[in-house]
Design goal:
heterodimer, A: 263 residues, alpha/beta, Rossmann fold, B: alpha+beta, Heat Shock Protein 90, 2 domains, five-stranded mixed β-sheet, two-stranded antiparallel ribbon, 9% strand
């Protein structure tokens, strides 16, 4: 089987190569690699590959992320596994998007041993889906609306998430995104719970304090509720700003099927 | 230890604004002073010497103001006879203190203003010229004092102004307004020529300091918040870069160490590689080195290798001049990052006092070639033949890239090691070879 490793580190390709070459049962596989997702475009026949190991974040090596690579591999019907550390908190949204929009066969940590890599390749070679408990956390639940869809309800949410990362004032956010101030407030209100859920369920952080009671409609209450929501959502947007900046995410959300409208 | 959260960021921002504001205000005052000089055209000849003298004093004050803000101005003033002591009191940006140029400009403004109103105004001026001259003189003094109200020293947390000074700051506009009101009282018949409305407006004009001061503080805080926001994003970016380069390198090293029976030479090689990555990261962070997605320069790599290995200064390590121009693709750069430290390290271990490196890319199909020549003791035959030696391991590693490593003894002593491998076809030869490679 031809295997391609899409990773900015040559060491990732070597790790897979050495792991497979060190066992006679997997020695017959050929491993090649590209350093950036863009380089996949240069390969004339991507379909020749039976498996791809895909990193998610390529930092300054490329503007594209692993989501772009997954799209190309998906179009070529190449089974892909995510080859990335999921111990980094700022990868979480990339992982959610990868499993929301594509069906990676597994999530393999870069700490995986040679034996684990060999087992994984052998399983995929037999066209069976490997058991990967790590990926269950990121797969969309069959019940209810997927987390990512609640985080980015509509295309217009992305500019607000982007602005929320760079600005720390609702007026500034409204100004740069061309929406009303009340829209920013309702955005904060709408997304507070899903951010709290991601923080708690996926990042294992202390849950955000519950929303203050809103039965009183006084101005002070509104101001307090705004202040209460703004700080955690701003921090969240800052931490994940590379995800929200990714043009591929924008394309995926635009192309997302479903009844959800756009602003 | 200084942290990224700088408690002096308000002060530092005010400092940056102050020097620019002061320079702009000096220029504006120069225009006002020029206007006052023009009003002398309406002064009777008998009063002209007094007018010239008072405006000259104002001009000296303004020149001192320019000298205190312009690079080299202070030194120039100090060179003038008897001015060295004066130059020492040009004030400090760090503290809200009385500065000689400020005082001189204030006195100059008062002298200029007293030509048009007050106790001894010039007598022969037409009303319009007198009113205009007075307005320019008040504006002049107004600008001088406003600099004091928004002086960066008020925002200095390390040497904060005393409570009394802070209270005084709030009273400056009121005191100045009271002072102008007092001076503009109709002390002299000439004063009564100035319309009452003009006198009232000029008298209360310092009260505008309060809203301007508030606006200045708001802008200052907004700049600081903007700075903090940028810094927060930058921190995450830096961490992302650190993760992408340094941490991932260490993860792969750790992953190899955790394998059954890891080889010590391979661990050494991976560790050297990690040290070079750390140096590269430092270069990107503080050394102005730009990470190029298309690859990297051999010269940059060479310097990183030398710093990472801590090459002793007694060893003369030289990269061939032509090689400094060679740029490698991202893949080849990473291969070179494994090869170069190993070869240089071997040369240093052999006690070399001179290490000459050369790197080239050429041939068909393209090959990357790194040559290291040293004057060390050379390699023992068993070191080359030992399958677990670092060189054999490196050779085996390069063979996966259609490469190898060769050694030869130099005639005059020392060793020449040549490592070579097939250049990354994706970059050098386009899609055809990559396709071939994928079907190997």
């Amino acid at each position: 089987m031809n295997i391609i490793v899409v990773d900015d580190h040559i060491a990732a390709q070597e790790t897979v190569t050495v792991a497979l070459a060190s066992d006679p049962a997997t020695k017959h596989h050929t491993v090649t690699g590209v350093r950036t997702p863009d380089e996949l475009h240069r390969i004339a026949d991507l379909r020749a590959f039976g498996l791809a190991f895909v990193d998610l974040d390529f930092r300054r090596q490329s503007k594209e992320t692993g989501l772009f690579a997954l799209r190309l591999l998906d179009q070529a019907a190449v089974p892909a596994v995510i080859y990335a550390a999921d111990d980094e908190d700022n990868r979480v949204l990339f992982l959610l998007a990868a499993f929301r929009f594509y069906s990676p066969w597994a999530l393999v940590s870069k700490r995986a041993s040679g034996a684990e890599i060999r087992r994984l390749v052998a399983t995929i070679e037999s066209r069976a889906r490997p058991e990967s408990s790590a990926m269950h956390r990121y797969q969309p639940s069959h019940r209810g609306i997927p987390i990512l869809d609640r985080l980015i309800v509509r295309v217009g949410d992305i500019p607000i998430w982007r602005a929320l990362a760079t600005q720390s004032d609702r007026n500034a956010i409204a100004e740069v995104t061309n929406v009303s101030r009340s829209k920013v407030d309702s955005f904060l209100s709408e997304h507070f719970d899903v951010v709290a859920e991601i923080e708690k369920e996926l990042l294992f952080r202390t849950p955000l304090p519950p929303e203050p009671p809103t039965e009183t409609r006084s101005l002070r209450r509104t101001v307090r509720a705004y202040a209460h929501r703004f700080a955690p959502l701003h921090s969240f947007a800052v931490e994940h700003h590379r995800f929200f900046q990714d043009s591929e995410v924008m394309e995926l959300i635009k192309g997302r099927s479903g009844p959800r409208g756009r602003w | 230890m200084r942290t990224a959260d700088d408690p002096q960021e308000m002060f530092n921002t005010a400092l940056n604004a102050d020097s620019r504001l002061w320079l702009a205000a000096c220029r504006s005052r120069a225009v006002l002073l020029a206007g006052m000089w023009v009003t002398l055209a309406w002064v009777p000849a008998a009063e002209l010497p007094r007018g010239l003298a008072q405006l000259l004093a104002a001009a000296v004050g303004l020149l001192l103001g320019f000298a205190s803000i312009t690079p080299g101005g202070r030194e120039m003033v100090a060179k003038a006879p008897g001015m060295a002591g004066l130059a020492r009191h040009f004030g400090s940006f760090g503290r809200a203190a009385i500065a000689v140029p400020g005082v001189a400009e204030g006195i100059g403004a008062f002298l200029a203003g007293s030509l048009y109103a007050g106790w001894f105004p010039l007598t022969g001026l037409p009303t319009a010229v007198r009113s205009l001259g007075l307005a320019m003189a008040v504006c002049y003094g107004w600008e001088c004092l406003f600099q004091a109200v928004i002086h960066p020293g008020w925002y200095n947390r390390e040497t904060p102004p005393s409570h009394a000074m802070r209270v005084f700051r709030y009273t400056i506009p009121a005191i100045f307004a009271a002072f102008i009101t007092f001076v503009l009282l109709p002390w002299d018949a000439a004063d009564t020529q100035i319309p009452l409305l003009v006198r009232v407006l000029l008298s209360i004009s310092p009260l505008v300091y309060y809203p301007l001061w508030a606006v200045f503080d708001i802008m200052l805080k907004a700049s600081v918040i903007s700075l903090r926001n940028s810094r927060n994003l930058w921190r995450w970016d830096v961490w992302g870069d650190a993760h992408g380069s340094v941490k991932n390198t260490l993860v792969f090293l750790n992953q190899y160490v955790e394998e059954p029976e890891p080889d010590l030479e391979e661990i050494r090689s991976l560790t050297r590689n990690a040290l070079v990555v750390v140096d590269e990261f430092k270069g990107q962070l503080v050394g102005g080195r730009i990470q190029d997605p298309a690859g990297g320069s051999v010269e940059d790599l060479w310097h990183s290798v030398l710093r990472a290995l801590g090459s002793p200064r007694r060893v003369h390590c030289i990269l061939d001049e032509e090689s400094t121009l060679v740029r490698l693709s991202a893949t080849d750069y990473q291969v070179a990052r494994r090869v170069l430290p190993d070869l240089v390290s071997n040369a240093l271990k052999a006690g070399a006092s001179a290490v000459d490196a050369r790197c080239s890319v050429g041939g068909q199909p393209a090959q990357v070639r790194i040559e290291i020549a040293d004057d060390g003791t050379g390699l023992a035959p068993d070191e080359i033949s030992d399958p677990r030696s670092s060189l054999r391991m490196l050779g085996a590693w390069l063979s996966e890239r259609n490469g190898d490593i060769r050694h030869s003894a130099k005639p005059g002593g020392g060793t020449t090691a040549v490592a070579y491998w097939r250049a990354d076809p994706g970059h050098r030869h386009g899609p055809a070879e990559l396709e071939l490679m994928s079907q190997d």
